[in-house]
Amino acid sequence: MTEFPPGRWSYLIIGDQWPTDQDLTALNIGRNNREALESSFTHFVTLLRAAQTGPLSNQRGLTAEDLRNAFRHGEKAVQRVAEKNTIKASAYRMAYDSVLSLQHDLTTIATEARASQVCAFRAVRCGGGVHLRRVRQ
Questions:
Q1: In a domain, 66, yes or no
Q2: Residue 112 confidence class, pLDDT cut points 50, 70, 90
Q3: Can you tell which superkingdom this protein's organism belongs to (predicted)?
Q4: DSSP string across the chain
Q5: More confident residue, 90 or 12
Q6: What is the pTM of this model?
Q7: How many domains does the chain have?
């Protein structure tokens, strides 16, 4: 996470656009939660598949066939949920990376603005007051 750029005018220039650490934390937590859900559902798919190929594979009759169909249907449904969580985790990851990129770009803007202020103006003391005078670059 990036610190807010220093400078007298940084907040005025980029403050309204600066994403907070809480924003980054929320995105990171969202990504971690979605990845954990995806992992759990993928494990559940494995268990459902193991039940179909293990104890249910040797069973015969209508009840056994109904059970196999229910397990197949459950496996497909759980697999879809796992895939959706993978997509959402990826979206959180991209959002997090985009926010970091935004912070970097805003830091660059603030740094360049600060450098141009230092180069463009020089304080000159005159009669008790401070006057700014444009300096040629």
A1: yes
A2: confident
A3: Bacteria
A4: -PPPPPSTTHHHHHGGGPPPHHHHHHHHHHHHHHHHHHHHHHHHHHHHHHHHHTTTTT--SHHHHHHHHHHHHHHHHHHHHHHHHHHHHHHHHHHHHHHHHHHHHHHHHHHHHHHHHHHHEEEEEETTEEEEEE---
A5: 90
A6: 0.72
A7: 1
